[in-house]
Amino acid sequence: MMAFQVQQLNVGGYDHNFSYLVVADNGDAALVDPTGDCEKIRRAVEAAGPLTPRYILLTHGHQDHSECLGEVCSFFPAGIASHPNHPLSGRIKLHDGMRLPFGGGWIEAIAMPGHTRDSIAFRLSDDSALFTGDTLFVDCIGFCRSKDMFDTITKKLLPLPDGLVVYSGHDYGSVPFRTLGEEKKFNPYLNCPTLEAFRQQLRHLE
Ligand SMILES: [Fe+2]
């Protein structure tokens, strides 16, 4: 049974951004949205011991999620994986449902249009974690096109297992991370029965 460890890195950046280091028990490693304090990312990678850099995963094209990309490539030489429409579209072009081999398991790319057209969430194969970028935060969601986001929430997010820990792109909630099951319960944007109700709820998004 493979295991993954996730480090949530409070990297500051544009607005309380998070980057993530994911390490599998065979040493395979991935970075999610390297940005903000590049030194902090470097220290985390070095402290994690001998790693095999496999992927740099980008959740969407907004610049505040990839400020350290150039720098991390010098100490974490890995394939950059993003949606084909991502402005920095990497060597690995992700499509919905694509599974990247990782540590005896995989990382699945799930297309989640709404915040942007190139938004992707990443799910670990042991169902321990879901990296949501600016699609889903603790307690709220990202600015979005309402129809696309409502479809993403109802067709893509809500069917996912409750036990996934949601790791988002910014520290905007009451806690830095929470399970998807708790988001389904407490996040008002995940509790709208109709598109109209969702649009009403969106008026509360600052
Ligand atoms: Fe964004």
Automatic annotation (TrEMBL):
Residues 16-170 form the Metallo-beta-lactamase domain. The keyword Hydrolase applies. Signal peptide: none annotated. It comes from the Bacteria. The keyword Manganese does not apply. InterPro entries: Metallo-B-lactamas, Mito_Persulfide_Diox, RibonucZ/Hydroxyglut_hydro. Keywords: Hydrolase. This is MBL fold metallo-hydrolase. It comes from Victivallis lenta.
